[in-house]
Design brief:
Methane Monooxygenase Hydroxylase, Chain G, domain 1, 3 helices, 83% helix
Amino acid sequence: MKGHTTRHDDNLKRLARVEGQIRGIRRMVEEGEYCIDIVTQVQAAQSALGAVGLRVLRNHIEHCVTDAVRSGSEDEAQAKTDELMAVMERYFKR
């Protein structure tokens, strides 16, 4: 569901850094770098991407979910809560 106009400029900067990390990992693999060094960089990229995901999720809760609850519409609030729980369930399955 779309419905907000929040800017994600800081997240875009973070994603650009993650993209750079991924390119660096690819280069390391292509050049046959030491496996542990590659795994270390993969873990760092995963952590950075996870941090972006958490920032986006926090933004969703602070804006989209909060706005739905404040709207007074029980159906809208329930829909946002259900949506949030589905995302959380997928997130914690990884």
